[in-house]
Write a structure and sequence with these properties.
378 residues, alpha/beta, Aspartate Aminotransferase, domain 2, Aspartate Aminotransferase, domain 1, seven-stranded mixed β-sheet, five-stranded mixed β-sheet, globular, binds pyridoxal-5'-phosphate
Length: 378
């Protein structure tokens, strides 16, 4: 099946008890057993729940994977991956990483003796140099937040040893635009909160993968640590995923039109979008992505926090908020929001200028969106 069909149908059957075409919300903690040890495959909802199970199968299928696991948030999914490691193990990650991922690595897991190295992964050579015999995991995010850097998944897969797991945070691209497993990734992680849910109404995370031993380990951690997603949220995620392709086509189209507008606006300094031919890794973006997504960052010629704030205050359709990937357009200011905790020199070094503004372009009419930006910029 093509991805557009899999989004609606993969792993989803009419409910066996009633024929309900939409997967019911199995709002139950436990399941009656016929006799000790005899059950219908479900014993306790931390371990298995039918609504979650359908979503896990669906998410695995749309990423060309065998196994899927859903968690209470994207960070809970990351938490499960790092819990596979032991003290002394090393992780290599990108220096342009989602702030929450950086925080869980450095403030939660570092103190348990896991070593994290952050390198500029847009240059594969940097990854190669960082690998030691203690390296157990390479954690990639592409495109990155908020600089829209592109990391070559296949390139990294080709330089690592087989015993090093390659995990890719595929939140920005979504399975509709990019399937990291096809390029050699071992684990794909999603913040389902964003495009997969798509309607800014849930917090959820997911992991998908093919290796049965790693999957067994992760199911053990999911059950033992217990950070699962509830059945109601799984229902909403299943509903969201069914329209991912239709939404993403519009997100991409609107974003490309907004990029065109920003490029010729005389207030704007730089525009960061992987679809631009002058993006430093545009060729790799074209190789591993089917389209370039709905996220855009740009900086202003007047490079001050004040200039950025005044624009954030003036947009009406673009709502000032954290998060991304919902049907409605959002605007944010990394230097004072998501990346405020990073010291200024380090922030500037990774390209996050004082005036940098990030857009999550929604699926509204694009001329209304451009109008909104034009008024705010003038
Ligand atoms: C939001 C986000 C996360 C964290 O997911 P939550 O669902 O908020 O816990 C991780 N990675 C990326 C790229 C994100 O955008």
């Amino acid at each position: 099946m093509k991805i557009e069909t899999k989004l609606l149908h993969a792993g989803i059957e009419p409910d066996s008890a009633t024929g309900a075409i939409m997967t019911p919300i199995y709002q139950t903690s436990t399941y009656v057993q016929d006799e000790v040890g005899v059950n219908k495959g479900y014993e306790y909802s931390r371990t298995q729940n039918p609504t979650r199970h359908v979503l896990e199968k669906n998410l695995a299928a749309i990423e060309n994977a065998q196994y899927g696991l859903c968690f209470g948030s994207g960070l809970a999914a990351i938490d499960a991956v790092i819990k596979m490691l032991n003290p002394g193990d090393e992780v290599i990650s990108t220096n342009d990483l989602y702030g929450g991922s950086y925080r869980i690595f450095t403030t939660i897991f570092q103190k348990y003796g896991i070593v994290f190295k952050f390198v500029d992964m847009t240059q594969i050579e940097n990854v190669k140099v960082a690998i030691t015999d203690k390296t157990k995991l390479i954690w990639v995010e592409t495109p990155t937040n908020p600089m829209m850097s592109i990391i070559d998944i296949q390139g990294i897969a080709s330089i690592k040893r087989d015993d090093i797991l390659l995990a890719v945070d595929n939140t920005f691209a979504t399975p509709y635009l990019q399937n990291p497993i096809d390029f050699g990734a071992d684990i794909v992680m999603h913040s389902v909160t964003k495009y997969l849910g798509g309607h800014s109404d849930i917090i959820m995370g997911a992991l998908v993968l093919n290796d049965s031993e790693v999957a067994k380990n992760l199911y053990r951690i999911q059950n033992s640590s217990g950070a699962i997603s509830g059945p109601q949220d799984c229902f909403l995620a299943l509903r969201g995923v069914k329209t991912l392709h239709v939404r993403m086509d519009r997100h991409c189209y609107n974003a490309s039109k907004i990029v065109e507008f920003l490029q010729v606006n005389d207030q704007i300094d730089k525009v960061y979008y992987p679809g631009l031919v002058n993006h430093p890794n545009h060729i790799i973006a074209k190789k591993q992505m089917r389209n370039f997504g709905g996220m855009i960052s740009f900086s202003l010629k007047e490079d001050t926090i004040k200039a950025a704030h005044s624009i954030l205050k003036k947009t009406k359709l673009f709502s000032l908020a954290e998060s991304l990937g919902g049907v409605e357009s959002l605007i944010g200011h990394p230097a004072s929001m998501t990346h405020a905790s990073i010291p200024k020199e380090i922030r500037i070094q990774s390209g996050i200028a004082d005036s940098l503004i990030r857009l999550s372009v929604g699926i509204e009419d694009v001329s209304d969106l451009i109008d909104d930006l034009e008024k705010a910029l003038s």
